[in-house]
Amino acid sequence: MFQVRTDLAVEARELYKENKRQEIPGVEVEKSQVEDAIEITRVKIIDEKGSQLMGRPKGSYITIEARGLKSADADLKDSVSKVMAKELVRLLPKKKGLSTFVVGLGNWDVTPDALGPEVVSKILVTRHLFKMYKKTEDPTMSSVSAITPGVMGTTGIETSDIIQGIIQKSKPDLVIAIDALASRKMERVSTTIQISTTGISPGSGVGNLRKQLNEETLGVPVIAIGVPTVVDAATMTNDTISMVIKALKSHSKKGSDFFNILDDMKDNEKYALIKEVLEPYGANVIVTTKEIDKIIIDISQIIANGINIALHPGIDLKDVNRYIN
Amino acid sequence: MFQVRTDLAVEARELYKENKRQEIPGVEVEKSQVEDAIEITRVKIIDEKGSQLMGRPKGSYITIEARGLKSADADLKDSVSKVMAKELVRLLPKKKGLSTFVVGLGNWDVTPDALGPEVVSKILVTRHLFKMYKKTEDPTMSSVSAITPGVMGTTGIETSDIIQGIIQKSKPDLVIAIDALASRKMERVSTTIQISTTGISPGSGVGNLRKQLNEETLGVPVIAIGVPTVVDAATMTNDTISMVIKALKSHSKKGSDFFNILDDMKDNEKYALIKEVLEPYGANVIVTTKEIDKIIIDISQIIANGINIALHPGIDLKDVNRYIN
Amino acid sequence: MFQVRTDLAVEARELYKENKRQEIPGVEVEKSQVEDAIEITRVKIIDEKGSQLMGRPKGSYITIEARGLKSADADLKDSVSKVMAKELVRLLPKKKGLSTFVVGLGNWDVTPDALGPEVVSKILVTRHLFKMYKKTEDPTMSSVSAITPGVMGTTGIETSDIIQGIIQKSKPDLVIAIDALASRKMERVSTTIQISTTGISPGSGVGNLRKQLNEETLGVPVIAIGVPTVVDAATMTNDTISMVIKALKSHSKKGSDFFNILDDMKDNEKYALIKEVLEPYGANVIVTTKEIDKIIIDISQIIANGINIALHPGIDLKDVNRYIN
Amino acid sequence: MFQVRTDLAVEARELYKENKRQEIPGVEVEKSQVEDAIEITRVKIIDEKGSQLMGRPKGSYITIEARGLKSADADLKDSVSKVMAKELVRLLPKKKGLSTFVVGLGNWDVTPDALGPEVVSKILVTRHLFKMYKKTEDPTMSSVSAITPGVMGTTGIETSDIIQGIIQKSKPDLVIAIDALASRKMERVSTTIQISTTGISPGSGVGNLRKQLNEETLGVPVIAIGVPTVVDAATMTNDTISMVIKALKSHSKKGSDFFNILDDMKDNEKYALIKEVLEPYGANVIVTTKEIDKIIIDISQIIANGINIALHPGIDLKDVNRYIN
């Protein structure tokens, strides 16, 4: 059967509600608003049941949404960075002299997949300075290392192996992994940031990672930060078909053959149609915006700023906006 | 009413045939095959009637299609360059000492729109050498100049004004304008090259040009070369809806209410649906492939090679493949 | 005879003083200090004599020097942008609804020559908006267009022809031309901005322009903004030889054969030596810094900011630092 | 005392001969010519004495020089790739199912240091295919993985630690490390390829690596491939000073005060002069060519081709020239 493709916990929940018309069990949801331009949704998967229904590991999924990010409002960008930093700080291990390893997943040669590498290029890296001056902590900054491991197609090596190898040598306390995501709705592309404590799962993201990246596989806590940059074409097709059927139903009496045809069409045949629509399109078809190149640059700045001010107490946004290009 | 968006003459014709179930009047079509991997379709709009039905000016539209271009078959790439060069040579003004001005339309900061600039970066430019050595003709090469004028959003100036201004100074005999196009079908993205003698029309291409570029506006003949790099999201949605309706019709007796509902749904309501589907997606939604960055590089090489060997008799493909990166 | 290569008026004057041990006639010089981190030198060539001795047209040459720019001090960068904007405003034609055309000279594929194109990519372009809304003036912004014409080697067309052609179509009141320069001293590379009212002369800059760009050739006033990004290798060699000779002289009695040999060596033989040193190095040898890539990005931001706040009264530095990446 | 900076064994030997006017002991040298456009010099350091005098570990240093590479002769480029491949094959461990890890050292944001990353981007990576199809060997290709580890300033981690970590996970049989070098003579920049079996030493290369990369530190054999992309400014200054002194000596009688002054100037004072010349230039001053951006692209293609045909018996140059952009 066709599965709507989404990397966002909020959407997985949405889908459940749409189909089952009830709140999803084993999942706690809490919404809040910042300056009424930014909406924060905290989805917590608390048990196995919830995990299975959501198709995601137990843990926290924080979603920061700001529709306004589509326009070039620099103040809103700064607010989002600050909100993100605040959420991040809350998730950081409470440890003096924390050492963080930032990993930019994805392929820098594939624009919608280049978010991770772009963010890493804007991270204030300090680990080598701590080594050089033989310091373990500092009031203004913490030890940060960063890498863009590339993708298996260009390195020939599992991304998880590269990261594990570097971790064994550099011994960070924490990994922050950034990845481009697929959303179910175009309106969330580039306007939504998901922060989760559960790592990154295979096949998620734009660039199909194949192995888990989480505390279990890496040996240190993993905070995953993702932003949708594309919508899966099959997902958009599925939404379109559902809308056509809904529209037609409104023309027909409940119980009529017509209505019934529409009803049992729903699943099996619907999937055949999706395939029929997309077959000629070949694999790797994505729905995105013409502005994706610029969007990747803008949103990566927002996220890098958020990480930089969360990890380096001594610097503020005014600095990072100007120091890091 | 909804208009399927396509910049390809072959598709405009396809659409007419699908709806009217007849060949389009005022248009001559001729197909041929090269090494059964490459299909050439020559669409000739011969009168006003045809021009109006096709929504395009009178003239020749040559389409070179090679599905195999999706894979990295270097030999096929070379064949396509040669086929393209042959068609191009046939369209060149018969003049000793021909001087050609190659214009790469589109925005190099927008990947699917960067085809033109990419091609220009690979063109063998020689005009300054002819000037330097005070030559007017040469057996091995012809005078070629090239520019990427940018887009109005980044220059503040109508692209047509920039090109006209440069033409008045550099006095070429011919303009070859390269632009990224929108196709109706994903399978044509990056596998189809359209060469036309009618210039480039407003609103066509990925990067919405606003004024005509043709012999009338520029004062010299214009050969337009385009390759589809995206599919308009509305077009894909429209195709999807049509397929759903077709599928449902197959379940219902001709003449039944159901069948009729489906029939009169066709146009008015269909358009409303398309809008409903795409509204949340905002403007500038495109359907493309994850490989678009690499595709732009590959296809621009094919086209630049075709132009280079067409304009410079003295060089062959072996040279350009190695000299120009 | 060997000519020290410099595009900076302040250095042309320095050289004269070093050789002739007197102030250069026909030239007025005025120095001032800003926040003692920025030094402004106003060189005014007032007559033919001065023009000939300086090897430059009559007019004003304003040099803004800030050694601190080598380090990443964001506050100093902002101060320099503001100082530059102030000087620029003083040079702008006093006209309501001024329309400016910014030209980024140089080759974006040659790092030390890419300053102009980099600046243009950060300019706030507004001309098309004025056209769209049929406005001629606005309290917050002025009409700005911008282009990177490329270099003759890649376009096949004289850069001056391209610019003239576009000016004839777009009819600006003013041209601001940005170009990368060669300095005599490495310490001035990336720390010095020269603003002049005399346009740009052939052979100056890193990318050897061949025709004048000034009010006479373009028909509108031209403000040239340049930053040294390289030192000519011959110049550095010449300085080295002079130092060796000076050092040796300090060992020998005035009038001794030794001293005399050193003295008449000075010119003729010195030049032979320079050639001998550089011959194996081939043409196009430059002395620059390993950081040149980053420097081009930083300094282009400073200059673009200066131009943006000078031409758009409504925006301040805080905005441009964040809006334009 | 001043040390001429060179990463080329052939130059270290040159220097010794210039100063001591004798062949260097403990070193075997063998020259050969290919198509009289390519010169191969094999320097073998055979004992401790030689190692100490050369300031390099014992082992083989193969230098491939082709002055013609300065011009864009595609046939010569291909010949150099083939010659290089042949030398490389001779150095490969004789092992069925050899697995090679290619490492591109240097900083891709610093043009003259970007050689390594550029080469890696053109390497045919296959290791993941061997894993996917569970093969250990193949007649047409061998298992190749590749990475660009970045530099400590951008990752915060010792490059050697990153490489060691990845090696422990991916278990290659061989490392091929590519790095940009500093030459003593501009004529060797971009025209010389050095292949050595001794790994890469600290402080060599343009991008100052800090730890050894060799069989001892990495646990597998290391083949280092380097190309000079810059000349150290101090080296050029030193050469200049020597030439001045040589010129002056030719004017003076052996034994005269003058001659003696020149003689004992030689070392101590010479160094003071070099410092005096370069002080104002600050650190990181390099001498290079204006074409360095293009040169990095061209030479990286030559080297990548050489590696690709050496490691993948099934492909020939025609393929790689067209498949890999």
UniProtKB/TrEMBL annotation, chains A, B, C, D:
Single biological process term from Gene Ontology = proteolysis
Q: Which SUPFAM superfamilies match?
A: HybD-like
The answer to whether the entry has keyword Metal-binding is no
The entry's comment on post-translational modification says: Autoproteolytically processed. The inactive tetrameric zymogen termed p46 autoprocesses to a smaller form termed p41, which is active only during spore germination.
Annotated transmembrane regions: none
This enzyme catalyses: Endopeptidase action with P4 Glu or Asp, P1 preferably Glu > Asp, P1' hydrophobic and P2' Ala
**Lineage: superkingdom:** Bacteria
Signal peptide per UniProt: none
Keyword terms, alphabetized: Hydrolase, Protease, Zymogen
Q: Which GO terms describe its molecular function?
A: metalloendopeptidase activity
Residue numbers covered by the propeptide annotation in the UniProt entry: 1-7
UniProt xrefs under Pfam families: Peptidase_A25
For the keyword Transit peptide, the answer is no
What does the record give as EC number? 3.4.24.78
Q: Which family does it belong to?
A: Belongs to the peptidase A25 family.
What is the designated name of this protein? Germination protease
Q: Which organism is it from?
A: Paramaledivibacter caminithermalis (strain DSM 15212 / CIP 107654 / DViRD3)
